[in-house]
Design a protein that fits this description.
The protein has 461 residues and is an all-alpha fold. Helices cover 69% and strands 0% of the residues. The two termini are 40 Å apart.
Length: 461
């Protein structure tokens, strides 16, 4: 009887641990670590937010900071039915609101917050280009609060779901995974430096992935729908008038344009079809694998591969779109540490010209160093998993080339005939590494099915 009671008590404790995330943290002995990491991650974000932002002091249209502020101005001062309509009071040529309703309502809520403390920052007409000290602080706080309220809990939820099914997960592994996700340098630089709210859509996506892993399909659908409804642009969902690429992005169309002048040789209609065909065809193998042999691990690889496909081949990709494949790569950090390191370093490098224009060189260097330190922190993870297909000599050469290009970009001027030569070389290097990683992750996803067959055969024998 006593043994049965003991078993029942143990079973009840396990159920509590499985159902209560906070108790799970305490049970694993990492509650204090989680709080410390979260606080440090917030402090890092605050430190980055002290630096310049996109379009700072650069009239007449400034940059993304002004776009977000203007959306708060519009949503707070105008009725809902006029948010997306061009009028004398809502000039869509000046940062017109072209994101879905969830972004609009987010802007409205943030506008309420800013209006309470500093009405001048969101007053209609007169606040254009507003860059007062208090206004900038309030704007930065809207991003910080969004990060803390959406992305941080989503990361916690994912880690809880991911590791609660792994009874032998080490405390150091869990703490390392939390740190590597919350201290993602690319996300911090874009949201808290350049100024955007990617933390909301990415946080909703992480929550959706966690819901999939915990077999809560309706929750996953709800969260992923919110993520799409927050970030997918309306009129710019297919901005064909801008051409197939803009600026220097490390994707297929921009990189190959050095040899193939896509915009000259093909009509926009032809490029639409080419882009659609390339994106769908490169996504297809990953989707077929999940249909054929669905699994939680394969789902994460599928997310990464589809994100790579959209970044590489879709129409009008921005430098910041690399955040999409970075997210599932961070979710796979424990299984694929080298993959995360390599994509993070080259994602940072691919955004280097953009961040230089924003005056974010110092936080760029600081966060790169911080990421390297966190990545190499001692944990129980198996470093032997670090990309066996990569030769250490080759990776060393690539890293040295990246360092040299950083120095050249900062200290030298390109030839007058080729003013964007340095950007093109950076783009080419990053694109080559993204392609290698893309091939690797697609192959790895298909090997998951193969490993299942091997395990089944061993059991039969």
């Amino acid at each position: 009887m006593e043994k049965r009671r003991g078993r029942k008590v143990m079973k009840d404790k396990e159920e509590v641990v499985d159902d209560d995330p906070w108790w799970w943290l305490v049970h694993k002995g990492i509650a204090a670590s989680f709080l410390c990491i979260a606080m440090f991650a917030l402090l890092v974000r605050v430190a980055v937010s002290l630096h310049p932002y996109s379009g700072a002091g650069n009239p007449p249209k400034y940059g993304d900071f002004e776009a977000q502020r203007h959306w708060m101005e519009i949503t707070f001062n105008m009725p809902v039915e006029e948010w997306y309509l061009n009028s004398t009071t809502n000039d869509l040529s000046y940062w017109g609101l072209d994101y879905p309703p969830l972004t609009a309502y987010q802007s409205y809520v943030h506008g309420l917050f800013i209006r309470f403390f500093h009405p001048e920052s969101v007053s209609l007409f007169t606040s254009r280009g507003h860059e007062s000290y208090i206004g900038k602080i309030l704007m930065r706080w809207t991003v910080l609060s969004s990060d803390a309220l959406v992305f941080f809990p989503a990361v916690f939820y994912f880690v809880f779901v991911y590791y609660s099914g792994r009874p032998h997960g080490q405390k150091t592994d869990i703490a390392w995974h939390i740190a590597i996700m919350l201290l993602s340098p690319c996300l911090i630089l874009i949201d808290h430096g350049h100024f955007q709210y990617n933390c909301i859509s990415l946080g909703l996506t992480v929550g959706a992935v966690a819901a999939v892993h915990s077999n809560k399909e309706l929750v996953a659908c709800f969260l992923f729908s919110l993520a799409l409804n927050h970030k997918q642009v309306l009129r710019r969902l297919a901005p064909f008038e801008r051409g197939i690429y803009e600026d220097y992005v490390a994707n297929f169309w921009c990189t190959t344009s050095v040899l193939i002048k896509w915009k000259r040789m093909f009509t926009t209609q032809s490029l639409k079809l080419l882009s659609l065909g390339a994106t769908v065809s490169t996504c297809l193998p990953s989707m077929l694998q999940q249909i054929w042999a669905p699994s939680n691990q394969g789902f994460l690889y599928g997310l990464l591969n589809s994100a790579f496909s959209f970044y590489m081949f879709s129409f009008q990709v921005h430098e910041k779109s690399i955040l999409l494949p970075l997210l599932p790569a961070s979710l796979l950090a424990l299984e694929e540490p080298f993959l995360l390191k390599w994509i993070t370093l080259h994602a940072l490098f691919s955004m280097f010209p953009l961040l230089c224009r924003d005056g974010l060189i110092l936080p760029y260097i600081a966060l790169s160093v911080l990421f390297t330190l966190v990545y190499h922190a001692p944990t129980g993870r198996q470093d032997r998993k670090e990309a066996p297909s990569f030769n250490s000599f080759v990776t060393t050469i690539i890293v040295l080339c990246s360092v040299v290009l950083h120095i050249v970009y900062l200290t030298m001027h390109p030839p007058r005939r080729y003013p964007f030569l340095f950007e093109a070389v950076i783009m080419l290097l990053c694109f080559s590494q993204f392609m290698v990683l893309c091939f690797y992750t697609n192959a790895k996803q298909w090997m998951l099915k193969r490993s299942v067959f091997v395990d089944e055969e061993k059991k039969l024998l």
